[in-house]
């Protein structure tokens, strides 16, 4: 992932202002250590910190059209750039580089502001039209790439990949909404991404496993586009295992394989002896990947907390817990010379994989909750995956959040997605069933139908309990007594949350900063609306899922037989909360 910073209409074209923009842009250098670029046109500044993935030799930014009147700074990848390039070339356009992002300026020349939906990829960009001194900015459909917008007292507009690029110089700033475009011509946002599922209308397309399989394979294959070494994040759970399996199956014959070899590299992180490491090793052995296993201690994680909060820019408890192992792993991966990884975020949101979905009242409620979860991904898992990796100049690609795949998956009648224990349909059954193949299996059946199991003395007990014990040392009961007065917005209700909030507000003291972080009641990563599914939940709200024990017990009371059978220890009341404490970290720890 690259880092972009644009300062537009600041009424200051002095050398001092240019120096200030350069200074702020350097705060994003961790995202793009390969090259720095700055373009100035009057009082407009476009800067870029590049992580070179496609065309490392000539794709430095900002990018231009033929006569350099259109200037673009981009963070992301455009997977259909070759197809777009052919069309634009036929229309008479000439390209300066082989960068996938080079198509953006030319698409704007052809279509004006109405081209963003033509882009298939993850992206954030700012485009300046020097002919009339107007500009647009846009963010990808789901918010895979991070982006913020701010306003200065001098009338300037600031756009940055991270908070730290603008928080000290803006009077007000906020999250740039996913799927939107900001235009200087109107001074406001408009939504460019308008899929059918966004209106939360209940779909009725019958479930077809082969259609779903084909859509996801295509999503993974298009993300093999790279000119640099890459790998997959593999934890041994369903989602990351499917990503790894498809990547291993189709890697041979690709341009990437010709450059870097056809044997896939996989990466996993965990505490010494963690069952997650064992599960990942089993899948890696089955797929024949070159597997890299990284260990960290609880103290390693605690020591990294302040750096994690600085980079991921949130005080959300589950996000920080899940980001820390990913942050540590990303540093190790980058040290091996790898610059891109493919990852498994988004599956639980699309297919209702979280445990609380067992309590969905009907197909309508189930579908509407998946819609709400996808819309909120940019505040949680996308933020974690993007910033934990970008902290070390590593790019994460997420095929489950492919636009076409989401359209296919979200058009399925939600009745097929619902958990039905009488029919032995566990969570994400439609995804598991789609990849059953007796002749050419993608995964062994016991892995394909593996449930979210308990964390034992590995990540679950030691990591979470260690964080809580550390917070106890720094936050007193007296401090908690006055928490609502010290932090009236999103008041922390645990010492761990209070501890993270203190660090966040020291790093980002502005009022706007705290407003960029989501809050509200939650059960096991649910939205506030889903709490209505079980009356008991409203009396015991806990975003980590502690109040959702009933959902788990009800879900697994019946014996499902050898395929998909759940193994729970005798101390289920102790184990389940720990299992659900890190449910948001599925990619890093569970899959």
TrEMBL record:
InterPro entries: Asn_synth_AEB (IPR006426), Asn_synthase (IPR001962), Asn_Synthetase (IPR050795), AsnB_N (IPR033738), GATase_2_dom (IPR017932), Ntn_hydrolases_N (IPR029055), Rossmann-like_a/b/a_fold (IPR014729). It holds the Pfam family GATase_7. It comes from the Eukaryota. Pathway: Amino-acid biosynthesis; L-asparagine biosynthesis; L-asparagine from L-aspartate (L-Gln route): step 1/1. Keywords: Amino-acid biosynthesis, Asparagine biosynthesis, ATP-binding, Glutamine amidotransferase, Ligase, Nucleotide-binding. It is an enzyme of class 6 (ligase). One of its GO terms (biological process) is asparagine biosynthetic process. L-glutamine binds at residue 100. Residues 2-187 form the Glutamine amidotransferase type-2 domain. It comes from Helianthus annuus (Common sunflower). CDD domains: Asn_synthase_B_C, AsnB. Its EC number is 6.3.5.4. The record marks 345 as: Important for beta-aspartyl-AMP intermediate formation. Transmembrane segments: none annotated. This is Asparagine synthetase [glutamine-hydrolyzing]. One of its GO terms (molecular function) is ATP binding. ATP binds at residues 233, 269, 343-344. The active site is at residue 2. PANTHER family: ASPARAGINE SYNTHETASE, ASPARAGINE SYNTHETASE [GLUTAMINE-HYDROLYZING] 1.
């Amino acid at each position: 992932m690259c880092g972009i910073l644009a300062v537009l209409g600041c009424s200051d074209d002095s050398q001092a202002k240019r120096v200030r923009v350069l200074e702020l842009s350097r705060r994003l250098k961790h995202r793009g250590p390969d090259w720095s670029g700055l373009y100035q046109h009057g009082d407009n500044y476009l800067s870029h910190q590049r992580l070179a993935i496609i065309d490392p030799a000539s794709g430095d930014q900002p990018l231009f059209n033929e006569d350099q009147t259109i200037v673009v700074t981009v963070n992301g990848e455009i997977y259909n750039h070759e197809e777009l390039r052919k069309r634009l070339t036929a229309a008479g356009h000439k390209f300066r580089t082989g960068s996938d992002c080079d198509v953006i300026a030319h698409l704007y020349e052809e279509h004006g502001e109405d081209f963003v939906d033509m882009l298939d990829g993850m992206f954030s960009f700012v485009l300046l039209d020097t002919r009339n001194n107007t500009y647009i900015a846009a963010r990808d459909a789901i918010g895979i790439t991070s982006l913020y917008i701010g306003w200065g007292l001098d009338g300037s507009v600031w756009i940055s990949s991270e908070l730290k690029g603008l928080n000290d110089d803006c009077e007000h700033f906020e999250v740039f909404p996913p799927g939107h475009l900001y235009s200087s011509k109107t001074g406001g946002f408009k939504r460019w991404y308008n899929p059918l599922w966004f209106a939360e209308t209940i779909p009725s397309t019958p479930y077809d496993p082969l259609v779903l399989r084909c859509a996801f394979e295509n999503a993974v294959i298009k993300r093999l586009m790279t000119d640099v070494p890459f790998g997959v994040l593999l934890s041994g759970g369903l989602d990351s295992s499917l990503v790894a399996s498809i990547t291993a199956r189709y890697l041979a014959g690709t341009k990437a394989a010709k450059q870097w070899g056809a044997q896939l590299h996989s990466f996993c992180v965990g505490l010494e002896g963690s069952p997650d490491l064992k599960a990942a090793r089993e899948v890696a052995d089955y797929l024949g990947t070159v597997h890299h296993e990284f260990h960290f201690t609880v103290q390693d994680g605690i020591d990294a907390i302040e750096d994690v909060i600085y980079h991921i820019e949130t005080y959300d408890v589950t996000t920080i817990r899940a980001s820390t192992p990913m942050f540590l792993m990303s540093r190790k991966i980058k040290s091996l010379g790898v610059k891109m990884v493919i990852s498994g975020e988004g599956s639980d949101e699309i297919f209702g994989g979280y445990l609380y979905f067992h309590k969905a009242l009907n197909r309508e409620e189930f579908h509407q909750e998946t819609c709400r979860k996808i819309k909120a991904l940019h505040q949680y898992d996308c933020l974690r995956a993007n910033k934990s990796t970008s902290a070390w100049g590593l790019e994460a690609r997420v095929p489950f959040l492919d636009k076409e795949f989401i359209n296919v998956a979200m058009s399925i009648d939600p009745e097929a997605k619902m958990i039905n224990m009488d029919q032995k349909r566990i969570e994400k059954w439609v995804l598991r069933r789609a990849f059953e193949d007796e002749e050419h299996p993608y995964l062994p059946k016991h892995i394909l139908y593996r449930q979210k199991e308990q964390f034992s003395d590995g990540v679950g007990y030691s990591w979470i309990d260690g964080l809580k014990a550390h917070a106890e040392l720094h936050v007193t009961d007296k401090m908690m007594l006055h928490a609502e007065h010290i932090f009236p917005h999103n008041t922390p209700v645990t010492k761990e949350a209070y501890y993270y909030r203190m660090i966040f507000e020291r790093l980002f003291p502005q009022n706007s900063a705290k407003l960029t972080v989501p809050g509200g009641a939650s059960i096991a990563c649910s939205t506030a609306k889903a709490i209505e599914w079980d009356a008991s939940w409203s009396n015991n709200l806990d975003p980590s899922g502690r109040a959702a024990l009933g959902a788990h017990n009800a879900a697994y009371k019946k014996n499902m037989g050898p395929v998909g059978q759940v193994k729970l220890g005798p101390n289920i009341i102790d184990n389940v909360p720990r299992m659900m404490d890190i449910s948001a970290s599925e990619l890093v720890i569970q899959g």
